[in-house]
Amino acid sequence: MLRLTIREVSQAFREGRISPSELCQKCLNRIKKTRNLNAYITVTEEQAVEQARAADERFQRGAPKGPLDGIPIAVKDNFCTENTETTCASKMLKGYRPPFNATVVQKLLDQGAVLLGKTNLDEFAMGSGSTDGAFGPVRNPWSYSAPYRDRGGADPDSDWVITGGSSGGSAAAVASLSSFLALGSDTGGSTRNPAAHCGLVGLKPTYGLVSRHGFIPLVNSMDVPGIMTRSVHDAATVLGVLQGQDAKDSTTIRHPEENFHLPDDIDVRDLRVGIPKEYHAPGLSRETLAQWSRVADVLERAGARVVTVSLPHTQHSIVCYHVLCAAEVASNMARFDGLQYGHRSVEDSSTDALYAATRHEGFNQVVRGRILSGNYFLLRRNYQQYFVKAQQVRRLIADDFAQVFSAGVDLLLTPTTLSDAPSHAHFIQEDNRTRSMQEDVFTQPVNMAGLPAVTVPMALSGRGLPISLQLIGPALQDRKLLTVAGWLERQVAFPQIRLPWDTEEDEEEGCNLGVAERGQTAV
Amino acid sequence: MGFVVYAFQSGQPQIKKKSSAVPQLIGVVGLEIHAQINSSTKLFSSSQVGFSAPPNSQVSFFDASLPGTLPVLNRRCVEAAVMTGLALDCTINRKSLFDRKHYFYADLPAGYQITQQRLPIAVGGTLRYSHLIGRKQGEVVTKSVRIKQIQLEQDSGKSLHDESGSQTFIDLNRAGVGLMELVMEPDMQCGEEAAAAVRELQLILQTLGTCQGNMSEGQLRVDANVSVHRPGEPLGVRTEVKNINSARFLARAIDYEIERQMEVLRRGGSVLNETRAFDFKSGQTIPMREKEGLQDYRFMPEPNLPPLMVYDSETAPPPAGTDPGQAVLIDAMRDRIPELPSARRARLVDAFGIRPEHSYTLVNEDGLTDYFEGVVRMSRAEPRKAIGWVIKDVLGLLKQRGLKVSQSPVPPHALAEMLDLLEDGRVSSSAAKTVFQELWKGTGRSPAQIVEQQDLGLVDDSTEIHRICQSVIDSHPEEVRTIRTGNRKVLNKLVGLVQKQTKGRSDPVRVRAILEEGTS
């Protein structure tokens, strides 16, 4: 039952094969069994049980709220949840209970979703490994999977592969089957990167389509709430619920497209798919490249036109991001001074001393480093050389995409990450900044341009780990993007994860229901 | 930027003359004014705005800068800034931008203020103001100061220090209240000019209703940039004078600062670029603890607010699909501007033939124009006669008692009725004063009732007046003799005696005529 998609579970609820409470209990048990993944910072068990019971009643009355009613979900711990601790995986916000729900959280709760808990991340979402949070690193469930273990993967007690980040907890929750949906956040790839490493569908919607109110920001001008599910259809369902103008977020846009049902099948013959030549980046693994070519061939064989395109300024994206991100971080983090909320140092000899000590103690090295460099870039004498230049380059990067799309390309096909998930021991040999610059190379330019992008798992690597590709679309073409992603999903038939915690019962259900209903066309 | 009418005026006060061939040092004054926008809610949140609410009772999640909150622009504040800009002949920028200005301070919870540093909502205006000079302040001089820009920004909270100084308390009620910062070019030369400009601005804002303009309540806060130089030479190093809470103190602070800087230069010293506070007790400016000067505010665009667009129904209509309730239209704002003080003064002089300085008094006193116009409308008396009563008697007494025009115990219709009694010759002017004093007591009796009950009406009985006049003549033979020798002045004394006997109820012209006849 745990490995079903949202659509399948919702159907099971309707048919009375299982109740929301029963499913919620299974998920809570799975969370307990998978504690060592460190996916959750807070588990909201009591609240979840209560919400599930309310959903039970609605189904019993025959009046469920919609496709998400009774569905267990997890939320990254940088989205505010009313009266539930929201830490951003930082000592600075340990114990902080916001008095309000983020708009996206509220929308899910309004639909009857059952919140299981808050998921782990890199501190304030700064990282690409989910290894730099105050609550320790997140382990990728695939570290425990049969294919990985069978093909000589390290013993997970000594080393494990990372989830990617920064929304690693959310990815681990969905991949380990303790949750059917998780909210991530995506500023430079933080949803797509861990989704790719954990074999999930990860959607970064168009900037402005989904409200950021209550999302504790990293880079306001690039932040987008991200969606992680086990199927493209589920991602589309969730986007349909979350999208829309929000009076509390002035950067949200009015978008008339309310109905978000994906067609079950499409004809890809009219499709023009661009392959950006600059994405043949240094460090791209042989296996990922092979998948990229294979999938391009799949599209071509089905009649789509696959063309090479150029995004010449993409190569500058990461360094440009570094400047803009640090600048906004320096600004956004200024509010954490220990006076109103969060950590406060015992040092109180003066207000300035209190600030300094609070911020030194509350933030980790990564956050402090970005604050320092951001303030440097914003100094009057540096502003033109750094911030303004970076903004100009940002515009060029966005223009690159716009030109390609206006030349008739419908969407771009690229890798999501350089390779499959690296091991933790390997990953931490370089610092956070170096890793972020390497890992976000394919995902980050999309945030610069505010475009929608989705990552879809394609195959397992030689190590038995997921390899995923990314589709990038023009602004507000999220639905079209998902339609093609859904088509690809059906073509590749990515295998389901097999975990040591799967009970025999789950296995059986999985065989009977899960796999049977999903796309099987082997390629 | 609009053209500028700038008149150099004589009458430079408080600058001591020194005989020298070198041109004299003169003061150069520019102002930065923070006007709290008169709006029921804050600039970026829906918290209420109120002057005397209990501490921290008007604080939204955004005002407290809780993480994840976002600013939502208050349309009313935009309208106020557009209207103010138009009233000051500014160019309204169809598109303006918001920026973050960073500094750490306990009453600035976000660590930055949202302001409009790069592209403000209004630029390039002019404020025309006048002040009265000459003997008896009888001469009106009109000048103008250029408005560089008007920007929308957030107010900060307030820090309250306990008596021992060891603890600071933060009140965030004011945090996030909308401000218009008006930056004036350094076109003024002395404190009196600056004070006159601020008073005129105050009046304009109050007329528009965009700011209540009370300086002592901090609704209007003025910082002065002051320097001195010799005309024709580059501007001198300037200081910024803060902590000024009335127009009177503004004039004093600036004049003190100009004099201080001149003295520094005369002694061969140099003026430091610093921030100084005005100490109203000593009348001096004193250096503030320096940290402002070295601040780098690390300005950055505010990423959570799209560009602020304003439209014009004719030349730049809002794009299709814009919620008509949300778009701010420049032309609609222009139509909503009421009669401004300068236009009102010109109209009063023109329509009622009153003196220009009286038009200042009428317009500068809140509600007095309406009062005066009410009296004129309801009375048959000449406006020029009414103005004296309104300014000397009504306003004089109000000032004495510290009352506002709206609190006057004599309403316009009562004064009008009294003026009519006077006009119709039913009371003498001295009896009218008595009636006015009775009215002031606010007993609710009408002038006619007072006249009747206190028997103040003119003695109309010819026989009776003749009788009283004759009795005065009879009982003052000395005076009558003197008059007959040609000393007519003594006649006045007799007139006064008749008035005394009739308790001011006789017509002095008539009495005089009777007495003249009787003593000839």
Automatic annotation (TrEMBL), chain A:
SUPFAM superfamilies in the cross-refs: Amidase signature (AS) enzymes
Q: Which GO terms describe its cellular component?
A: glutamyl-tRNA(Gln) amidotransferase complex; mitochondrion
User: Which chemical reaction does it catalyze?
Assistant: L-glutamyl-tRNA(Gln) + L-glutamine + ATP + H2O = L-glutaminyl-tRNA(Gln) + L-glutamate + ADP + phosphate + H(+)
One GO BP: glutaminyl-tRNAGln biosynthesis via transamidation
As for subcellular location, the record says: Mitochondrion
Q: Which residues cross the membrane?
A: none
**Where is region (Disordered) located?**
503-523
Residue stretches making up the Amidase domain: 22-482
Q: Which domain of life is it from?
A: Eukaryota
Q: Does the keyword Protein biosynthesis apply?
A: yes
Query: Which molecular function terms from Gene Ontology are attached?
Result: ATP binding; glutaminyl-tRNA synthase (glutamine-hydrolyzing) activity
Q: Which of UniProt's keywords are assigned here?
A: ATP-binding, Ligase, Mitochondrion, Nucleotide-binding, Protein biosynthesis
Protein family: Belongs to the amidase family. GatA subfamily.
Biological role stated in the UniProt entry: Allows the formation of correctly charged Gln-tRNA(Gln) through the transamidation of misacylated Glu-tRNA(Gln) in the mitochondria. The reaction takes place in the presence of glutamine and ATP through an activated gamma-phospho-Glu-tRNA(Gln).
Q: How does it assemble?
A: Subunit of the heterotrimeric GatCAB amidotransferase (AdT) complex, composed of A (QRSL1), B (GATB) and C (GATC) subunits.
| Record's protein name | Glutamyl-tRNA(Gln) amidotransferase subunit A, mitochondrial
User: What is the protein's species of origin?
Assistant: Synaphobranchus kaupii (Kaup's arrowtooth eel)
From TrEMBL, chain B:
Question: Which enzyme class?
Answer: ligase
Q: Which InterPro entries match?
A: Asn/Gln-tRNA_amidoTrfase_suB/E, Asn/Gln-tRNA_Trfase_suB/E_cat, Asn/Gln_amidotransferase, Asn/Gln_tRNA_amidoTrase-B-like, GatB, GatB_Yqey_C_2, Gln_synth/guanido_kin_cat_dom
- GO CC annotation terms, alphabetical: glutamyl-tRNA(Gln) amidotransferase complex; mitochondrion
The entry's localization annotation reads: Mitochondrion
- Tell me the domain of life: Eukaryota
Per the annotation, which location comes first and is thus the protein's main one? mitochondrion
Q: Which stretches make up the Asn/Gln amidotransferase domain?
A: 370-517
Does the keyword section mention Nucleotidyltransferase?
A: no
Family classification: Belongs to the GatB/GatE family. GatB subfamily.
Write the protein's name. Glutamyl-tRNA(Gln) amidotransferase subunit B, mitochondrial
Question: Whose protein is this, by species?
Answer: Synaphobranchus kaupii
